[in-house]
Design brief:
With about 500 residues, the chain is an alpha/beta fold. It contains 13 helices and 24 strands. The protein binds N-(aminocarbonyl)-beta-alanine and zinc ion (3 copies).
Amino acid sequence: GQFDLVIHNGLVVVGSDVMPPSTYIGVKGGIIEQISATPLTGKKIIDAEGGYIMPGGIDSHVHLSQKNTPAGDTFESGTRSALPGGTTTVIPFAIQNSKDDFDLVSAVEEYHTQAKNKSYCDYGFHVIISNPSDELLGTQLPLLAQQHGITSVKVYTTYPRYRLSDEQLLDILLSNRKLGITTMIHAENADIIDFIGKKLEEKKLTDPFYHSVSRPKVAEDEATYRVISLSKMIDVPILIVHMSSETALATVREAQNNLVPIFAETCPQYLFLTADYLKHQCSHHVHKNDPFEGAKYICSPPLRQSQSELDGVWKAIQNGTVTVFSSDHAPTIYDHPLGKKAGLVNGIPHYKKVPNGLPGIETRMPLLFCKGVETGKITAQRYVELCCSNPAKLYGLEQKGTIAVGKDADFVIWYPKGKMTPFILSNSMLHHGIDYSPFEGVEFTNWPRYTILRGSVVWDRDNDGLLASKITGQYVKRAASSMAGPVGKLSYIFE
Ligand code: URP
Ligand code: ZN
Ligand code: ZN
Ligand code: ZN
């Protein structure tokens, strides 16, 4: 019969293959109903004119309406920014109200209320665990997994409020092995960071740049090696988030070579920005007269010192070490007393008082597309793996991340190479609620031309721009990861 939507005449990319422009995709009721080599008819037809047709992007690491980030993006402003950047599903974090609050289930309910009818794209939740009580691991996590479809947790080795001991990490890893939950770990050695921070404080070296000095690469390298060791001990997969160090990525690769299920995430900032951006005396056009502007680039792990370090992260994108490419969209407004400017006390800058994180939900997919696919650094299939299909598999988004019959009709369609007029990014082009982008000044040779969410065109760059209504984004219950899992080691003591 007649389809609601037919997409044709593009290079249809999934994680393993590219199908030719003679392919027709027929969509009905928000679902891909047919993929055909002969023409299909529909109420609406999109001619991709030879450009790439990819699954909608999945950004599996974003912070929206997070209670501890008062000047950040809300569900509304953050997800509004997802669609024009080609992202149709996000997984933000739900966190406990405080370290003394043990009720994670109520916290999740509050985030549901925050997001319901306010999301432009589809969304799930991860939970952040800062106090692993027996009750939380034994009762609340199973309930969240079974009833809410929350099958991943994030834990930290750093930040005073969140850092966990190795023993606490082992408790969580074992619990997650039993429940089939994916553990995301922020790996930086907290004692090294505290130690250097004190030395910098004594010398009154507190400008934004010293943020990067206080969190050296070796802190990430050590913690990465350690959490991989803990994962091996428990025989359970982990995903190490926002990796920025070539050395740490080499440790991940060695574990992967030995068939240990270690997964790695990196983000645009670790491919495109060096610590130079944190300095107030540098040559970028973005730094004009404001000596505090480096605060815009404070994130953890920090931007690294040299281009060769960034090249190392690129290698891990190319050689398969990196599993998922996320934005870690953790924005705060720059010019706001609770935003980045909180780090300026009576005119004196202190990097420790600056909220950590960068905005990047909208620029993630275009950056890697322009600088990775269009330059020939990675194939279009590898791109889809990193931005769409691996996050779907790792986080159990069963309806998402690929173009196949029966899956949700989520797509991003790019311009044929050379068809879009290149432009230099300015923040006013973006749809988030933040007053800057760390990628202002970057030239883009392509951008999502159409974004389609469950069969509806929600972004049409050449005509009306953003077409979505915020109430159309739906909560997605997730299944367990379908990537490599435990092989059952030491089951006689662990089960
Ligand atoms: O600097 C960052 N990345 N802040 C967000 C929180 C986190 O650690 O992911
Ligand atoms: Zn983190
Ligand atoms: Zn600069
Ligand atoms: Zn984060």
